[in-house]
Fold this protein.
Amino acid sequence: MPPVESVQVFGRKKTAVAVAHCKKGRGLIKINGCPIQFVQPQTLRTKVLEPVLLLGLARFQNVDIRLRVKGGGYTSQLYAIRQAISKSLVAYYQKFVDEASKQEIKEILTSYDRTLLVADPRRCEPKKFGGPSARARYQKSYR
């Protein structure tokens, strides 16, 4: 049995981590076993579908992408998913197709939004003593 052509890539946003498993197939994209069309909420579905809409269905026609997501909230999970989808397609094209088409995909994605390929390093700042939050201090009073 020949080895399966597959790549495993992750996408991150805050504390959410999405792991994408991309292999040769017939154009399926599933998130935690659910098709990508059923992503909730409706307004953020377009954000998840951005890589597909930007690159066109033709590039996704011969690959299956399965994603597992953990951690974070709704929005950060969706941002992690869209990054994982983009990165997995780039990695798949680099490994199993050709360098020119991979470069073309990369150009399209980065020109639209850099966070589709590069993780956002911002994290939540820890709270300190002497105030209600990380930066704000308690009000000072003299009497």
User: Anything to note?
Assistant: The CA atoms of residues 44 and 78 lie 8 Å apart.
